[in-house]
From TrEMBL:
Signal peptide: none annotated. It comes from Xanthobacter agilis. One of its GO terms (molecular function) is nitrite reductase (NADH) activity. Residues 21-117 form the Rieske domain. Its EC number is 1.7.1.15. Keywords: 2Fe-2S, Elongation factor, Iron, Iron-sulfur, Metal-binding, Nitrate assimilation, Oxidoreductase, Protein biosynthesis. This is Nitrite reductase (NADH) small subunit.
Amino acid sequence: MTDTTWTDTTCADMTCTDVIWIAIGHIDDIPRRGARCVTTPKGRIAVFRTADDAVFALEDRCPHKGGPLSVGIVHGHFVTCPLHNWNIGLDSGLAQGADEGQARAMPVRNEGGALFLALDAPPQPAVAAE
Ligand code: FES
C-alpha cells in the first residue's frame, strides 16, 4: 500500500463534508473477539474485530464511568465493559438494556483486510471482512 490516506466527500441532508480515512493496520492484527487501540488526534480509539470478522471502532471510553472498552469482552456485535459490565453496541456505541449513554462510534472501511478509520464522519455500519 502506497497511499495511507484519502479524502471522500459525502453528502447527507444536503450538507457535504470531507471524510479523511487513515490507515490503521490489517484485520489480522486484531484477534477475533478482541480489540486493538489507535491513538489519534481525536483521542484513543478501540478497533474491535468480532467472531464473524466485522470491524467496528469506538472511542475507548465507556459511557458509564470511562472504563477502557478495548479490554472488554467482545460477544456478538457487543462489548462488555470490564469495570461494571455494561453492554455497549459496537455498531452504535449505545449502552444496552436499562443503561443509558453512548460511546462515540466511527466508521471503519475494510479494503481486502486493510483497515481505514474515518474520524470526522458520522457513524455508519461496520464493514464485514471478505
Ligand atoms: S465504566 Fe463501563 S460499566 Fe462502568
